[in-house]
Amino acid sequence: MTVVNLLSCYVEEYEDVQVYKCCAFGHTIKNCSKKAGICFKCGIEGHVGRECKNERKDCPNCRKAKKEERSRNHSADDRSCSVYISKLEELREKTDCGQ
Ligand SMILES: [Zn+2]
Ligand SMILES: [Zn+2]
Ligand SMILES: [Zn+2]
To answer: Does residue 96 form part of some domain?
Structure first.
């Protein structure tokens, strides 16, 4: 199965598990312990993505996963994010997507 098929199949589940406030996976916004939001574009705490004025992107999930700086130049909701893709893989194992 290609990544593209995987994405179109699992993107809905994914959107349920990523908290847009802190960009982390696996809990809902009600369960989020973060007081301030983390920008999903530049990864800086205290503002959200739509208020972001930073030119440079720095994916907070990739930073947390200690990826190299040059591979973090995308936002946390980027479909090519390697953390995102591995989370989708996890979901794929848990979810029967009819395949
Ligand atoms: Zn959270
Ligand atoms: Zn920002
Ligand atoms: Zn990323």
So the answer is: no
Question: Distance from the CA of 70 to the center of ligand 1, in angstroms?
Answer: 25
Is residue 7 scored above 60 in pLDDT?
A: no
Summarize the confidence of residues 29-44 as an average pLDDT. 85
Q: How far apart are CA 68 and CA 43, in angstroms?
A: 14
Q: What is the Cα–Cα distance from 25 to 38, expressed in whole angstroms?
A: 13
56-88 core/surface letters (b: 16 or more CB in 10 A; e: else) = ebbbbbbeeeeeeeeebebbbbbeebbbbeebb
Distance 39 CA to ligand 2 centre (A): 5
Closest ligand to C-alpha of residue 30 is: 1
Total number of domains constituting the chain? 1
Q: Report which of 80, 55, 54 is spatially closest to residue 67, judged by C-alpha positions.
A: 80
Which candidate, 59, 55, 56, 52, places its Cα nearest to that of 74? 59
Q: What pLDDT is attached to residue 42?
A: 94
Owning domain of residue 61 = 3-91
